[in-house]
């Protein structure tokens, strides 16, 4: 007996399975979007027309691109930086050395009654002269930051600009950069004056005990100023980029930097501190051993400071130390400026879709069409 639960087709000729109704089709499985994968699977990586891929940047890309700035366009970057750093270093050494030479001469020529007063004045003049290299370095660093920012931004589009071209792009912005640097310097000087004033006030009111209390307060105040400087320095680190690339006023650039760093404070601070540590460590590895050797050699060759072949060798070694320091510092300056510019581009990509604007600009140029400046805000483009 057959199983009634199993159906069998009827035997015999002339039988065929029932046909489907007209217009009916079997259901189709839903199609899925292409998944990221190798070439040929429907996914392509973001374009990289120049220095960086046109997408938000991770830490490895940021660090690698900061190294590539020098290698990709060495003449305007390395040459200009070495020239600028060398000039400021030589001018600072000349001013400080000249003032120190005359100040020591005044002390030696002073009478016994006036020696204390002359010594105090001479020390004060040397301290003031020592500020000259710091001021020159800050002004030079401001100009350098503008040039490097332009190189990084234009390099992201695949451009390789020479120094005259970069200088033309920076036309009208150098004064704003120097003004920003002067403002930072003025705030720093006011902070140092405030710390010194606390110590002096304590000494004037309470003698030795008051001076000790004043020093303790000054130390706490100084630590607080360091924290404040780190916070403000991070929040306002994009001011030079906004001044140069977006051609904003100083007030607008301050607000712009403040808004771009919102929500990414610790990332920006951490990357800048890490890069600064790497740069300073590399510069120290290059310069510290040589400085130690030069100092020891000078003491052995000319222990009494007498002139002669040994002194000439010591002077030559000292000059070599200065040259190597300038070269190492120049590389470090370019890296630090590059990282700030790259972080600025990264923040605009993440918050404003700058990567899409840059891709459209690259496509338009490849098609032979004229494109607007992609780094200017949309409301300010001409």
TrEMBL record:
Residues 27-37 have a biased composition (Pro residues). Signal peptide: none annotated. It holds the Pfam family DUF7847. The chain crosses the membrane at residues 78-103, 123-153, 174-205, 211-232, 273-301, 313-345. Residues 119-333 form the DUF7847 domain. InterPro entries: DUF7847. Residues 1-47 are annotated as: Disordered. The keyword Membrane applies. Keywords: Membrane, Transmembrane, Transmembrane helix. This is Membrane protein.
